[in-house]
Amino acid sequence: MIPAHYLFDTFHGKRVHLGVTGSIAAYKALDLTRAFLRLNIQVGATLTESARRFVTDLSFGALGADPLFTDMFAAGMNYDHLEPAVADAFVVAPATANTLARMANGLADDLLSCQLLAYPGPVLVAPAMNPRMWSAPATRHNWEVLGQRGVVRIEPDCGSVACGDTGQGRLAPLEEIFIRTLAALSPQDMRGKKVMLTLGPTREYFDRVRFWSNPSTGTMGACLAIAAALRGAEVTAVTGPVDLPLPAMIRRIPVVSAREMFEAARDVFPSQDIGCFTAAVADFRPPACELGKFKKGGAPLALTFEPNPDILATLSGRKKPGQVTVGFAAEAQDLERNAAGKLERKNLDLIVANPVDEAGAGFATPTNRVLVMDRHGRRESWPQLPKTEIAWRIWDWISMNTP
Ligand code: C5P
Fold this sequence. Notes:
The chain is of the alpha/beta class. It is 31% helix and 23% strand. Cytidine-5'-monophosphate binds next to α11 and β17. Cytidine-5'-monophosphate is lined by residues 198, 258, 277-279, 281, 283, 308, 310-312, 327-329, 342.
């Protein structure tokens, strides 16, 4: 299953063509087809003869893949070998060792290899094979050649493979193939930018087992991190304790407490172009418990909380010319006035504010309703939207308004 925060709805009408080759992983190309179709991306497919031993073209057709190609000479004289000229990306998944070799050497001895040779757009390849075939010198060489030629290479995973061997050779996780394909379909307007994000809650431990925290799932920050990476940025995410997958193209620094998050962000931020602070940081921390674990007793427990560093205010205060900071504000009342105050007080370029007590906005929902304000006095209130869409729009705003 592709995680919900990977499902960006900005690719309507794009076309992806799948090349499916003869591996036991061929059935996974059906799930990939469904995932693209779910975003209203048109999917076509070409199955090699050996792929059709594992899956049928009927399965792809039944899901809605169109056009579908199998046999070079199926319809007599035609130009199928020059298709799919209009696709926005050509994804070979799974790719066998044989297909990699054909591609690396420019062979054109079946329909898929002809089409790949003739295709002028971005090609992605996700191999699947036995680990010994993967590590064979010939395959290593072909892999290098494809990289030099600009093919987007999605490394296979390590683990056990169908024949019982263990090693590198399993098809990469579908969500990786999916997200790398979306990147190939995305505008690259953030290429060359370095973006750091903080996301998720922080945990402030009372003792070894109990902590003070909040229900943030980190979804908004993850959507922003993925959207920036899709658009070509180099992204580092400082993540509080969240149970949220992020694509491999995002560097992840996991932390637990606000102080750890502060230290990580402080070290990374000076080299960044943009800092985006979505984390729901605990503003206070309880004192450390000497005992390791609080013991029950009749007496009430009284603790004095210490203030935590304000990561955003501190780093934004140290901003160098050209650096941009984006803050978030979850407000129970006076959304606009409080957000405007934070924009000013924390020296931000942009603030994104949402109400905390509204259904479909804020913590642990896939949607949000936000008010966006920037330092130039521009202000927009957006309707309730998926967090993926809000993330995309925030980067549109930043891209349009910063050099
Ligand atoms: O002041 P308030 O907590 O409402 O500000 C929210 C913004 O400040 C968010 O962007 C949040 O990530 C950031 N923040 C922070 N460190 C804190 C508290 C908030 O970075 N200790």
